[in-house]
Amino acid sequence: MEFYTIGVYNSTEKGFFEKLTKNNIDTFCDIRQRRGVRGAKYSFVNSNRLQQKLNDLEIKYGYIAELAPTSEIRELQKEIDLEKGELKRERHELGKVFIIEYKNKILNSFDFENFLEQLEFVGANRIALFCVEEFPEACHRSIVTDRLKEKYNYQVTHL
Q1: Would you say 107 and 143 are in contact if contact means Cβ atoms under 8 Å apart?
Q2: In the chain, what's the furthest Cα-to-Cα distance?
Q3: How confident is the model at residue 60, as a pLDDT?
Q4: Mapped to the 3 state alphabet, what secondary structure does 57-92 carry?
Q5: What angle, 0 to 180 degrees and rounded to 10, lies between the N-to-C axes of helices 140-152 and 112-121?
């Protein structure tokens, strides 16, 4: 299996789906807490519409709620962003407090073995982990993929 990550900010609908198809993504894992984005600009990644488009492209969709940060953890990052005067859409990295809390409360109890078994079971070969931030370092998906690299020696490509 090969892992990829993808965000949506600063993407067009066409460009977003081209990244998936050009990289032959066959399985799409949505790891957001809320599966919707405000406004029309990114409405193509709102859950129902996203799932329909992925289905049209013959890409399997899975929602992995157990990897989503809690509201409490997200609030910690919001505070850091406010202190920096940085908008979520412009963020380039996560705060240390967010990273520590995410690892302690989410990642350390996540059953990676079961996750990987389920991916194998559905025939996943090229898996994209999705959240909204443009830069992987500004998103919890980078923490997840760091663990996949460290513990399981998977290579990860950020689209």
Answers
A1: yes
A2: 44
A3: 98
A4: CCCEEEECHHHCCCHHHHHHHHHHHHHHCCCHHHCC
A5: 90
